[in-house]
TrEMBL record, chain A:
Pfam short name (any one): BPD_transp_2
Protein's name according to its UniProt entry: ABC transporter permease
Molecular-function GO terms, alphabetical: transmembrane transporter activity
Keyword terms of this UniProt record: Cell membrane, Membrane, Transmembrane, Transmembrane helix
TM segment ranges: 12-36, 56-78, 90-107, 113-136, 148-167, 196-214, 280-310, 322-341
Membrane topology: Multi-pass membrane protein
Keyword match Cell membrane: yes
Main localization of the protein described in the UniProt heading: membrane
InterPro entries: ABC_transp_permease
Location of this chain's protein in the cell: Cell membrane
A GO CC term assigned to this protein in UniProt: plasma membrane
Entry annotated with the keyword Cell membrane: yes
TrEMBL record, chain B:
Location of the protein in the cell: Cell membrane
GO cellular component: plasma membrane
Name this polypeptide is given: ABC transporter ATP-binding protein
Annotated organism of origin: Aminobacter anthyllidis
Lineage: superkingdom: Bacteria
TrEMBL record, chain C:
Cellular-component GO terms for this entry: plasma membrane
The UniProt record lists the keyword NADP: no
Main location: membrane
Compartment(s): Cell membrane
Protein's membrane topology: Multi-pass membrane protein
Gene Ontology molecular function, alphabetical: transmembrane transporter activity
Alphabetized Pfam families for the sequence: BPD_transp_2
The protein's name: ABC transporter permease
Membrane-crossing residue ranges in chain numbering: 6-26, 38-58, 64-83, 95-112, 151-168, 198-217, 273-295
Alphabetized UniProt keyword annotations: Cell membrane, Membrane, Transmembrane, Transmembrane helix
InterPro entries xrefs: ABC_transp_permease
Length: 349, 507, 313
């Protein structure tokens, strides 16, 4: 078997591949549904209904998609430059920490100033957290996959330490949780009485900004060049290490915004279950979008829909809601195969 | 099939997409015979041998070894049939010993223990029989290039090879090592082996073969008894036309533009530089000859800016340079044509447009306030495509999909468009067809006429002799004194390449 | 007790060896994969799957060794998935590895919930019991530490010896090492690089899964979510730390486990002045530190993470 490069496929065909990957995923996971003694069609119908069958369901899906857009963007940006950031989870929590540190009354500022200040500080902190592994990669040749993964565990323990120590809410009845952020630090809801908040809008704007950076700017060009061929990039005079540092700051910063948006827009405070693995799901979101920042919006909504829909489905059907995680993981693997097929022709001899 | 025929290829055809690498090739190899497979880079020699050895599967045609058909696509079957291959790039695991490399795959994989003593005895026996001295316990990474090649030959002999294929075996050898290799080949033939010797060097082909097969653009262009032919005839067959040397006009040598003053570097793909001094002057092509791995890569990387000197001084147009980097080199007007088109010069998965602006995207021509001007970039790409006669579907095409010659034209365009003062051309014609080679040569000569200083690094001595106003030879990281056009004979240059004589420094 | 005295007690070393055992299995598994040229980031998920598969087999009525075998088979299957995508298809080993971890983990949780829908706390099994080796286990400290362990720990040490023997003394080991260094050397000698790499990843993944199963069948007696807790990632660091050599990696795993056992005891002694999370962070921080220390002079298998196509050089 050989792989031969082929010309770039048309846009229509490019859009077809994620769809093919999703169909393959549904076929594979329907085996599990059958194993659970349920009918795949009715289960997938229930998932779809739970994700988008009502205004409530749809808003819930968009709410869940918000942090995924941020982490998906973080991963898309990093992977484009082949900086393997698997630490979006940790960067998200760092963003959450900064939000409660600055947002619980330490800075008595009006909303229009306080929220941007918190966002910038959170981005900086998240960026710096990824800068460590990036420096270790460029200076010492330490693989960033392992360091970012290990940092996820360290940061979560650090959060736990803070929540039982300096950030502990005195009124929290002993639960490890922080105080609520003050009203000025909260992102308003988009529709009164519903959970969807302005974090979603910030996420959409971020995706557009990242798209512009990747397509139109010198930095985006440099990042893509470094990702495709670091040796070639160095030869033509691109400052590879500096580009990787900038990538790390941007990627870590985007992931930290997920933490900010969850605390400021939804939860109000920091807890140890702020993220049910949004950092890891961000990898799937980014890959499903083929690392395209605008595609991240769609794939984040899709992945969020699976999670929200599976929760709803598992309440009626006897299929565990973990089917959602299986579907998401399977779609990552089917998607990388699909991407391969867009770039290469498989010859069997 | 005569009883003495060991190998027969019939109608071998192999296509890679639209490219026909081998077109209905047929020939036979007799016992005790040395066939030279002569052809330019890209003529299809290596593809043909890869089919014979089972790395590739032919689209059409069959291979017979010792009267039995050889199943396609199975290196194991080729090995078992007694066909051994010494690849151009050695297929040795550097972290293992000579013995381990030779024994690899010769004993059943599922034995509980590798039988080392049997292997050691057999290697010792073969070493003495064929005069291939090498220590079986040595780790491959510690061996010289010549020793590694001996290990490759031993690998084949260990498996009782009756047919030995050598793919460009002399490319990495010094003249003395080449002579030793030729003596070994004579010995092998005397013991009844048959040899296919792949080369694009006419003198070697004349020296070593009984019969010459000439390959051109994937077709068998001719077959000659070595006794009854000469270099001129073979050269004409090889390129398909009368070979005209490039026309070199008289140009006044101008001011020194790039000076290296006792510059040393760390090792880089072979030797590093050891206090090298070199001056490149306007209107002059300086040819750098040498056996690969003697510091050419380090010198090219140094001038390109990808390596910093560990000692000595670089000055451009009379001024010592400060911080040294690819950007600094470009900023000083040094154009670079690197050895490796795919891994270094281009970013394969990016478009032609994105590649042609790569060295200058930060200039005001292509970007403003951190934003790229894609319109200007595309216009520039179209300009280069037109001016340098590049065949490509569109400026948006991924550069990976271009042929070697067209890729090299784009790289030339990118490098020469800003009218650079200094041009570094490292193996600029390797792997190109005749037309493209001539084009590259014309471009370099035109730059010289315009007053550029050119450094031409090449392993092809004929290319160096044809183009260079001055020739320097590199050996073990040191440079010989320069000689003017026609001053040294090929023989003298060969001795310098082997590291004899000329310990002095270039002015 | 003094903080230093701990180091001379048998119970400390017994704990250290116990903590080291799953790491030894998984480190050997990763080492085999990487020696063949494949980085296997599926390790964390494969350990999770192994932990569940072994435990559940016993819970469902199988005997302990059957459990180990089932765990190994489950690991090998995930290894086959990983290898199919990364070896013949040459897909990014980073992305596929993370994907396999996510898939193995979620499939495990799904299966657990499917099999035990009602339970609130996971059921217990009768795990492997310590098996003192007569004669040797009576030696003070060293004998006790090494020879009063469960059979699975003895198997871990045996695995190191076998892996070292196979890699350095057998024809197939030669082929594995060559595949990770220069795959064309393997193909030129008539051996399929694809076959060697797929085989190595499957065997390596089986060992990772046994490492996971050690936790549910020897160290503890039940299966919990997130019980692997980063051990897989630590093993990847241990392979680098051990310079891709089984013996050195074994030493690394024991040193690491000793440190881990030590921090638990220090934690008990510190009396809560230092937050316990600081101690829990130490193993992860130590892994990063170890990587930094050795990364500069690490000699990676040259073909690690580089896909190979037939006829390529």
């Amino acid at each position: 078997m050989r792989l031969e490069p082929k010309p770039a496929p048309s846009l229509a065909l490019t859009l077809l591949f994620p769809i093919a990957a999703i169909v393959a995923t549904l076929l594979i996971t329907s085996l599990l549904v059958l194993a659970a003694g349920a009918s795949p069609l009715s289960v997938f119908y229930l998932v779809a209904k739970g994700a988008a069958g009502s205004q409530f369901a749809l808003l819930e899906t968009l709410t869940r998609a918000t942090p995924l857009i941020f982490t998906g963007l973080a991963v898309a940006v990093a992977f484009r430059a082949k900086l393997w950031n698997i630490g979006a989870e940790a960067q998200l929590y760092v963003g959450g920490i900064v939000t409660v540190v600055l947002g619980t009354g330490a800075l008595p500022l009006p909303s229009v100033i306080l929220i941007p200040v918190i966002m910038l500080a959170a981005m900086l902190a998240g960026g710096l957290l990824l800068l460590g592994p990036a420096v270790l990669k460029t200076r010492f040749g330490v693989d960033e996959v392992v360091t970012t993964l290990l940092l996820n565990f360290i940061v979560l323990l650090f959060v736990s330490m803070l929540l039982e120590g300096v950030l502990k809410d005195p009124m929290g009845l002993g639960w490890p949780q922080s105080q609520k952020v003050i009203a000025e630090a909260q992102l308003p809801r988009i529709i009164q009485g519903k959970r969807l908040h302005y974090g979603f809008v910030i996420a959409i704007v971020s995706a557009i900004v990242v798209w512009v950076i990747m397509k139109k700017t010198v930095l985006g060009y440099e990042m893509r060049a470094v990702g495709h061929n670091p040796e070639g990039a160095r030869f033509v005079g691109i400052p590879v290490n500096r580009v990787l540092m900038k990538t790390a700051l941007l990627s870590g910063g985007l992931a930290a915004l997920a933490g900010f948006s969850e605390v400021s827009g939804l939860k109000g405070n920091l807890t140890l279950d702020l993220s049910p693995g949004y950092g890891y799901s961000g990898i799937v979101v980014a890959m499903l979008a083929m690392l395209n920042p605008l595609g991240v919006i769609a794939s984040a909504i899709f992945v969020a829909g699976i999670f929200v829909g599976a929760d709803a489905m598992s309440r009626t059907a006897k299929v565990p809601s973990y089917i959602a995680d299986v579907m998401v993981a399977t779609s990552l693997l089917t998607m990388v195969v699909a991407i391969l097929l867009t770039r290469f022709k498989v010859r069997w001899r | 099939m005569a009883a003495s025929t060991v190998l027969r290829l019939s109608g071998i055809t192999k296509r890679f997409g639209p490219l026909v690498a081998n077109d209905a090739i047929s020939f036979e190899l007799e016992r005790g015979e040395v066939i030279a497979l002569l052809g330019e880079n890209g003529a299809g020699k290596t593809t043909l041998m890869n089919i014979l050895f089972g790395h590739y599967v032919a689209d059409e045609g069959t291979v017979e070894a010792f009267g039995k058909p050889l199943p396609p696509g199975d290196p194991r079957a080729a090995l078992d049939a007694g066909i051994g291959m010494v690849h151009q790039h050695f297929t040795l695991a550097d972290n293992m010993t000579v013995l381990e490399n030779i024994a690899l795959g010769t004993q059943s994989l599922w034995r509980a223990r590798l039988d080392r003593s049997a292997a050691r005895q057999r290697i010792a026996q073969l070493s003495t029989d064929f005069g291939l001295a090498v220590d079986p316990a040595a780790t491959v990474s510690t061996l010289s290039v010549g020793e590694r090649q001996r290990v490759e030959i031993l690998k084949a002999l260990y498996r009782d090879a009756r047919v030995l294929i050598l793919d460009e075996p002399t490319a990495v050898l010094t003249p003395a090592e080449t002579d030793a290799l030729f003596r070994t080949l004579k010995l092998l033939v005397a013991k009844g082996l048959s040899i296919i010797f792949i080369s694009h060097k006419l003198n070697e082909v004349m020296a070593v073969s009984d019969r010459v097969l000439v390959l051109r653009s994937g077709r068998l262009a001719g077959e000659r008894e070595t006794k009854s032919t000469d270099r001129k005839q073979l050269a004409a067959l090889m390129v398909g036309q009368e070979v005209k040397p490039a026309e070199v006009s008289q140009v006044q040598v101008g001011a020194p533009l790039l000076m290296l003053d006792r510059v040393s570097t760390a090792r880089h793909n072979g030797a590093g530089l050891d206090e090298v001094s070199l001056t490149l002057s306007a209107g002059e092509i300086t040819g750098l000859a040498g056996v690969s791995g003697n510091g050419q890569a380090a010198l090219a990387a140094l001038i390109a800016g990808t390596r910093r000197p560990t000692g000595g001084r670089i000055s451009v147009a009379g001024h010592a340079v400060g911080d040294w980097s690819p950007r600094a080199a470009l900023g000083h007007g040094i154009a670079r044509i690197p050895e490796d088109r795919h891994a270094v010069a281009t970013i394969g998965d990016m478009s032609v447009t994105e590649n042609v602006i790569a060295e200058r995207y930060g200039s005001t021509r292509f970007s403003r306030m951190g934003f790229l001007d894609w319109k200007a970039a595309r216009a520039f790409a179209e300009e280069i495509i037109a001016d340098y006669d590049v065949k490509c579907p569109s400026p948006e095409a991924r550069i990976r999909l271009l042929s070697g010659g067209n890729m090299q034209k784009l790289i030339l365009g990118r490098a020469l468009d800003p009218e650079p003062a200094v041009i570094l051309a490292s193996q600029p014609t390797r792997g190109l067809d005749v037309g493209a080679v001539a084009y590259v040569h014309r471009m370099l000569l035109a730059a010289r006429e315009r007053g550029a200083a050119v450094l031409l690094i090449s392993e092809d001595l004929e290319e160096i002799l044809a183009l260079s106003d001055r020739i320097v030879v590199m050996s073990k990281g040191r440079l010989s004194p320069p000689s003017a056009r026609g001053e040294r004979t090929i023989r003298e240059l060969g001795e310098l390449m082997a590291g004899h004589g000329g310990e002095g420094q270039a002015a | 007790m003094d903080a230093l005295e701990i180091l001379f007690t048998a119970s400390f070393w017994v704990a250290a060896i116990r903590i080291a055992s799953p790491l030894i299995f998984a480190t050997m598994g990763e080492l085999i994969c990487e020696r063949a040229g494949v980085l296997n980031l599926g390790i964390e998920g494969i350990m999770t799957a192994g932990a569940f598969a072994g435990w559940f087999t016993v819970y469902a009525g199988g005997d302990l060794w059957t459990g180990v075998l089932v765990a190994a088979l489950a690991g090998a299957m995930f290894g086959l998935l990983h290898a199919t995508l990364t070896v013949p298809l040459g897909l990014s080993q980073h992305v596929v590895g993370i994907g396999v971890t996510l898939l193995a983990t979620s499939l495990t949780y799904f299966t657990y919930r499917l099999a035990l829908p009602e339970v609130t706390s996971p059921p217990k099994i009768e795990p492997f019991q310590p098996l003192p080796i007569p004669g040797l286990s009576k030696n003070p400290v060293v004998g006790e530490a090494l020879f009063t362990q469960t059979p699975l720990t003895y198997l871990a040490f045996l695995t190191v010896a076998v892996v070292a023997w196979v890699l350095y003394r057998t024809p197939v080991g030669l082929a594995v090492r060559a595949a990770g260094e220069n795959p064309s050397a393997v193909e030129a000698q008539g051996i399929s690089v694809t076959g060697i790499r797929i085989g190595a990843v499957m065997v390596g993944s089986a060992l990772m899964a046994i490492g996971g199963a050690f936790l549910t069948m020897s160290a503890f007696n039940s299966f919990f979510f997130e019980m692997i807790n980063g051990r897989g990632w630590i093993c990847i660091a241990l392979v680098v730390f051990g310079s891709w050599r089984p013996g050195k990696a074994l030493v690394g795993a024991i040193l690491f486990a000793a440190f881990d056992a030590y921090q638990v005891r220090l934690q008990q002694m510190s009396g809560g002045i230092v937050p316990y999370q600081v101690f829990l962070m130490m193993p992860y921080a130590l892994s990063i530190l170890a990587l930094i220390l050795v990364a500069r002079r690490a000699t990676y298998p040259k073909a690690l993470m580089i896909p190979y196509q037939k006829g390529e050089r």
